[in-house]
Specification:
There is one protein chain. The chain has 405 residues and is an alpha/beta fold. Helix content is 41%, strand content 19%. The relative contact order is 0.12.
Length: 405
């Protein structure tokens, strides 16, 4: 029999679901609840979460709201972009990369306040339950995890609203109206799922998008932007040094203005089913293009190609929730080793949903005009290619003669 829970650290947004969870934990487990709200740049005022938690009986000293924007971009987004990580060829992992940071901070708070359990608002159908809980257990294998969506019978919006009314949980007007989408936002992206998007043949409504204008309505004049890199991380825009979070925020604004970064995909969830989702990742789309451009002149062919082979595995680890695993850390060390000379500037053009590379330069560039020129040169003997080709074709030559014998 499980021992009684005395104190639970809850990942708390202040929205309907987690407010219901807060009260449900108090009534179902008769325990003290500690709330943790993470500011990851989702663009919402977070202080109302504090007042709502107070109204629901949480002690002031048990309410934690933390600004994690710089840590999020510096220690999670940037390392991921050093790998050029994309899941299933398209998804830039905006939700996936936020979960390990939330789990880490939640476990730090749980340890600080002496909580014997943690809780989250992820459903039993999604990837986030895996991501959160793998994170929790990597920091404390003995922690008790409470996942209300896997326990309770409040399996509809109507049931949640009724529970809220019954327990005097403040309900904002937006929660009384049926929202057409389930959304998750942070400084890297916004995701949209559910309702009309559950039919993969239905096009999303134009008014769904929040970060980007449609390419058709983007400015008719392109915008040129230069991104500076140091050891694989973006550090400046148009020569102005920016912190990681400020840089990504600026790229989001630039990309959003020009209709960059919309995505509509059907992805394979870790738990087994396919899921249709729409994403806006304007800054990340620009950053990925720029990073690959600077790598194109600073990485050796062998390391560049091997890095591209490792990337799908690395991206899958993040998508599935294994950020804290030894294998992800091992791959990260290999990836980071390739970034020592990835320093320079990339020039891009933003125009009606497109990110177009115009140029790149680096102090330790491996591009040599002396060797690659189509004009006369003094360093390359074109006759050498004949022997190179004959040696590489030797197995074809031997095989072809064997077929004729």
């Amino acid at each position: 029999m499980q021992k009684p829970i005395k104190k639970v650290a809850l990942a708390y947004s202040g929205g309907l679901d987690t407010s219901v969870i807060l009260k449900w934990l108090q009534t179902q487990y008769n325990c003290e609840v500690v709330t943790f709200t993470a500011d990851l740049g989702q663009g919402e005022e977070l202080e109302p979460a504090r007042s709502k938690a107070l109204k629901l009986g949480v002690k002031p000293e048990n309410i934690f709201i933390e600004d994690l924007r710089e840590e999020f971009v510096r220690d999670f987004v940037f390392p991921m972009f050093r790998a050029n990580a994309i899941y299933e060829g398209e998804y830039l992992l905006g939700t996936s990369i936020a979960r390990p940071l939330i789990a880490k901070k939640q476990m730090e708070i749980a340890a600080k306040v002496g909580a014997d359990a943690v809780s989250h608002g992820a459903t039993g159908k999604g990837n986030d339950q895996v991501r959160f809980e793998l994170g929790y257990l990597s920091f404390n294998p003995d922690i008790t995890i409470i996942a209300p969506w896997r326990e309770w019978d409040l399996n509809s919006r109507a049931a949640l609203l009724e529970f809220a009314r019954k327990h005097d949980i403040p309900i904002e007007k937006k929660h009384t109206e049926e929202s057409p989408y389930s959304m998750d936002a942070n400084l890297l992206h916004i995701s949209y799922e559910g309702k009309g998007l559950e039919d993969p043949f239905n096009a999303p409504d134009e008014d769904m998008w929040r970060l980007t204008v449609s390419p058709e309505n983007a400015p008719n004049t392109p915008e040129i932007v230069e991104i500076g890199f140091e050891k694989g991380d973006a550090v400046s825009i148009d020569g102005k040094a920016l912190s990681p979070a400020s840089l990504l925020k600026t790229l989001n604004e630039l990309g959003g203005k020009h209709g960059v970064g919309r995505l509509d995909i059907v992805e394979n969830r870790y738990v087994g089913m396919k899921s249709r989702g729409c994403y806006e990742t304007p800054g990340g789309t620009i950053l990925l293009k720029a990073h690959r451009a600077i790598e194109s002149i600073t990485l050796d062919r062998g390391e560049a190609h091997l890095k591209d082979e490792l990337m799908p595995r690395y991206a899958e680890l993040i998508y599935n929730g294994y950020w804290w695993s030894n294998e992800r850390k091992m791959l990260q060390a290999a990836i980071d080793a390739t970034q020592e000379n990835v320093t320079g500037v990339v020039k891009l053009k933003l125009y009606k949903g497109n990110v177009i590379t115009l140029g790149r330069k680096a102090p330790r560039s491996l591009f040599s005009a002396a060797y690659s020129t189509f004009e006369k040169d003094e360093v390359y003997n074109q006759k050498d290619a004949a022997g190179f080709i004959r040696l590489n074709a030797l197995r074809f030559i031997i095989g072809g003669k064997a077929k004729r014998s």
